[in-house]
Amino acid sequence: MKIEKDKLLLKARKILENNWRGTHTVPSPDLYPHQWSWDSAFTAIGLANCNRKRAEKELLSMFEGQWKNGLLPHIIFRSKDSYFPGPEYWQNDLSPFAPEIKTSGIVQPPVHAIAALCIYNQSLDRERTKGFLKKLFPQMLEFHRYLLIERDPEKTGLVTIFHPWESGFDNSIRWDEALSRISVQGLPEYGRVDIKKVDKNQRPSNAAYDKYIYLVELMKKSKYDAEAIYKTIPFKIKDVVFSSILYIANKNLIEIARIIGENDDEIRSWIERTKKNYFKYLCPKKVKTRLVYDYDLVSNQVIQKRTSASLIPTYTGLLSQEQAEAVLAWTKHAHFCSEGCIHDHPVVTSIPLSDEESNPLNYWRGPIWININSMPYQGIKNYGFYPEAKKLKDAIIDLVAEHGFHEYYNPLSGEGLGANNFSWTAALLIDLLSEGDDDSFI
Ligand code: 9WN
């Protein structure tokens, strides 16, 4: 498809403009009317290319929600607009560390340092941007410290998540087995708002929501204290995407420390820890596919589910060239919707189309998401697979140009699903379209 790049860029910027609320960008006005953590960081990556002042504000405002123990919550509640679970349900004041502002009590992947470095790299006035980095650096460091201490008592350099929402891949098949072991008891009455706004076939099931709410109940009982939660919660997983993103974010934090003249010894020690344990936990020798997976701390098993999560490690640079080739071969197989498909989008789906569990409509259980395409795109490009990377990039752009800026897409038809006018889709598109000469790496 021949796309008109300038028109597409304008549309993407307009979405970010409409979703801007003066201090932050909402992921989508109707379904997600507050500020989400990794959404804000993806949005800042897009804004770094076109509105750097706003990009800085976006990240700084996200850290207004930071807790005194470093935890950066996955939602800051910014308005009275309806969302469930809302602030009255989370009750962040159960924790002595919570801020005044109302937030959730869980985290999301730390994309923020990656976004902050993007802002600096794109800045036309780097001296001034250093001031922004200086402000944000200690807060990002505190967040990473929380993840590497409170969420990693095993000292593996890998993050333990307590809830599927922390992964950002909410109802992914990656969590099915762990959730199936949990029996829900004493659940409070609650009413979902999401399925009043989006077709319920495109959202997680009620049974999944019961487990999500039950897990939050358990965390509330522990007053959101990670040490206490570790002892009681039945969902404890070393998340491959979260840990990979943290590793990249730590590398970027080192670069930021260099730019502003801060000490980076502690960050380097975290990086070494991750390097030492990444394969030990996430891809032990007995794993025949050599793909990198999540590790379930309750069953003490690698979760060998083939999903797009296993493509994210390409972005870390930790894979050997041989392993990166295996990932690439895997993506080209049934997992890219490509040759032989009824449309022309060789884009990464959340789980392989060939998988019998794949559902083209349902959230993280089949559809295409733009963030899980842009990260492997950077990854395979870094490994030197230029033609494949170019093909993926063109496909992402084509998909959005043809079908609009949705939260996710049906991999069989390209049809947009979930929320419309979705901020990270717009932002990551801006980032891809702004990369300079499209053919520069061919
Ligand atoms: C729960 C905001 C968020 C994203 C997540 C996505 C979805 C929320 C929900 O929306 O999760 O956090 O209500 O389903 O799964 O990745 O950050 O866009």
Furnish the topology, listing elements before pairings.
Blueprint: H1 5-18, E1 35-36, H2 37-47, H3 52-62, E2 75-76, H4 87-90, H5 112-122, H6 126-149, E3 160-161, H7 164-167, H8 176-180, H9 194-197, H10 206-221, H11 226-232, E4 237-238, H12 240-260, H13 265-282, E5 294-296, E6 301-303, H14 321-335, H15 371-382, H16 386-403, E7 408-409, E8 416-417, H17 423-433
Helix pairs in contact: 1-17, 2-3, 2-5, 2-17, 3-5, 5-6, 5-12, 6-12, 12-13, 15-16, 16-17
The structure holds (2R)-2-(alpha-D-glucopyranosyloxy)-3-hydroxypropanoic acid.
Care to describe what's here?
By secondary structure, this protein is mostly helical. The protein is built from 17 helices and 8 strands. The protein has a 4-stranded antiparallel beta sheet. Strands 1-2 form a two-stranded antiparallel sheet. A two-stranded antiparallel ribbon has the order 7-8. Helix 3 packs antiparallel against helix 5, helix 5 crosses helix 12 and helix 15 packs antiparallel against helix 16. The structure holds (2R)-2-(alpha-D-glucopyranosyloxy)-3-hydroxypropanoic acid. The site of (2R)-2-(alpha-D-glucopyranosyloxy)-3-hydroxypropanoic acid has 10 residues, from helix 2. (2R)-2-(alpha-D-glucopyranosyloxy)-3-hydroxypropanoic acid binds next to helix 2.
Provide a concise account of the structure shown.
A four-stranded antiparallel β-sheet has the order 3-4-5-6. 50% of the residues are buried.
Number of strands: 8
Mean model confidence by pLDDT: 93
Unreliable sequence segments: 334-339
Estimate the helix proportion, in percent. 40-55%
**Strand pairing plus helix content: what structural class?**
mainly alpha
Bound molecules: (2R)-2-(alpha-D-glucopyranosyloxy)-3-hydroxypropanoic acid
* Largest sheet, strands/sense/barrel: 4 strands, antiparallel
Beta-strand residue fraction: under 5%
* Order of strands across the main sheet: 3-4-5-6
Distance between the termini: 19 Å
The coarse overall form would be: globular
Radius of gyration: 20 Å
Q: Number of DSSP helices?
A: 17
**SSE sequence, one letter per element:** HEHHEHHHEHHHHHEHHEEHHHEEH
